[in-house]
UniProtKB/TrEMBL annotation:
<dbReference type="Pfam" id="PF04909">
    <property type="entry name" value="Amidohydro_2"/>
</dbReference>
<feature type="domain" description="Amidohydrolase-related">
    <location>
        <begin position="22"/>
        <end position="291"/>
    </location>
</feature>
<protein>
    <submittedName>
        <fullName>Putative TIM-barrel fold metal-dependent hydrolase</fullName>
    </submittedName>
</protein>
<dbReference type="InterPro" id="IPR052358">
    <property type="entry name" value="Aro_Compnd_Degr_Hydrolases"/>
</dbReference>
<dbReference type="InterPro" id="IPR006680">
    <property type="entry name" value="Amidohydro-rel"/>
</dbReference>
<dbReference type="InterPro" id="IPR032466">
    <property type="entry name" value="Metal_Hydrolase"/>
</dbReference>
<dbReference type="GO" id="GO:0016787">
    <property type="term" value="F:hydrolase activity"/>
</dbReference>
<keyword id="KW-0378">Hydrolase</keyword>
Length: 291
């Protein structure tokens, strides 16, 4: 394993988070001597084991967190399962699996705290192919029956146009569908983009969820002002179906990696109503993940 890169140091936000606040989107990597990656990373290996993730939650003042499977680990969630075992009940996980994974394994994962599967339709930077190790939405229909039985949801990372094309597939799955990274929206198109409006229509129906993760959809670092109108529209459309997430340890962002305290300060400014903040940070993840 090449030399690892430590995540930036994060400060606590300038306001008191509500009790039970959750970070709905983060990843763990390593320790690599115990959990070597199975697929080549196209980014520098982060120094982000479970202990570092727990330290981040403590420093920020977050009560819980959700760990999402990165493609580098393929369909092996061992690093997440280890973090869940050490998390004292405050963590949940999203794994990745295709039809090749035995249903008995999914039962074991559920008992450990896995609550959904991630499907990734994104391509590598430069459009050279899918992310190594990812499971695409072509596996969603086959996996959906077992997921419904366990009360799981599907989390999907894709660009907004792919999401819109897949809306019939998502609806037909009968699952709650969670879209990563603000649905892969295209800020340059503006809030009147027909694709964005189609996502809002689905969000209004109640089966679709959106993760409010700013740093992948906006290049307007560090305040992401160009994402504000979209962020507001998601919340206004269905405040009971949005989840806040940090995206720690901010893979591939280098010097543009956000400070999590600053992200939460932005959230407080953009969502000034304390009760609404509590719904997004506490009630919604509690409902979706069983925290």
């Amino acid at each position: 394993m090449a030399e690892t890169v430590a995540p930036r140091s994060h400060r606590a936000p300038g306001w008191m988070l509500p009790a039970g606040a959750c970070d709905g989107h983060a990843h763990v990597f390593g320790p690599y001597e115990r959990f070597p990656v199975s697929h080549r990373m196209h980014y520098e290996p982060p120094l982000a084991p479970a202990a570092a993730h727990r330290d981040m939650l403590e420093r920020i003042g977050l009560a819980g967190g959700v760990l999402v499977q990165p493609g580098a680990y393929g369909e092996d969630p061992s690093a997440i399962l280890d973090a869940l075992a050490r998390g004292g009940g405050r963590l949940r996980g999203i794994a990745a699996a295709s039809e090749q994974v035995p249903q008995a394994d999914l039962d074991l994962w559920h008992a450990a705290g896995i609550r959904g599967l991630r499907f990734n339709d994104m391509t590598l930077p430069g459009g050279t192919g899918p992310f190594p190790g990812s499971v695409g939405t072509e596996s969603l229909a086959a996996m959906a029956p077992g997921m419904r039985t366990r009360g799981w949801h599907a989390e999907i990372w894709a660009g907004i146009d792919r999401h819109v094309a897949n809306l019939p597939l998502y609806r037909a799955s009968g699952l709650p569908i969670v879209l990563d990274h603000m649905a892969g929206l295209q800020i340059a198109r503006g809030p009147d983009d027909p694709a964005f409006k189609a996502i809002l229509d689905a969000l209004r129906e109640g089966w679709l969820w959106i993760k409010l993760v700013l740093c992948r959809c906006s290049q307007d670092f560090p305040d992401y002002a160009d994402a504000r109108a979209f962020h507001d529209a998601f919340i206004a459309t269905n405040p009971d179906r949005v989840i806040w997430g940090s995206d720690w340890p901010h893979l591939r962002l280098a010097e543009r990696a956000p400070d999590i305290g600053h992200l939460l300060d932005l959230f407080a400014v953009w969502v000034p109503d304390a009760e609404l903040r509590r719904r997004i940070l506490v009630d919604n993840p509690s409902k979706l993940y069983g925290l």
